[in-house]
Amino acid sequence: MLRQGFSGNWAPKELRRVCDELAQTHPEFSGARFTAHDFRRIFATDLVNNGLPIHIGAALLGHTSL
């Protein structure tokens, strides 16, 4: 069975491609770029906005204090 993975820069390149494609019809996406840390922030915000206590979210993300 052949297993194939993604390279470390696959996701940012794919997001850049999608944003560039969207920019053709939606100019607000022109120049949009994402990093892995952006997704960490989105994840943390989503946790708290959906009711998880902030101190538990902080612990999940490896923070020892708020």
What does this structure look like?
The protein is 53% helix and 0% strand. The protein contains 3 helices and no strands.
Helix content: 40-55%
Number of strands: 0
Which residues sit in consecutive blocks of at least 5 with pLDDT less than 50?
Answer: none
Mean pLDDT: 85
Query: What is the H-and-E element order?
Result: HHH
Distance between the termini: 46 Å
How many strands, what sense, and barrel or not for the largest sheet?
Answer: none
Which percent range describes the beta-strand content? under 5%
Structural class: mainly alpha
Number of helices: 3
CA gyration radius, whole angstroms: 16 Å
Question: Which of globular, elongated, flat, extended, rod-shaped describes the shape?
Answer: extended
Question: How would you summarize this macromolecular structure in one to three sentences?
Answer:
This protein has 66 residues and is mainly α. The protein has helices spanning 10-23, 36-49, 54-60.
Show the helix and strand layout.
Layout (H helix, E strand, L loop, with lengths): L9 H14 L12 H14 L4 H7 L6
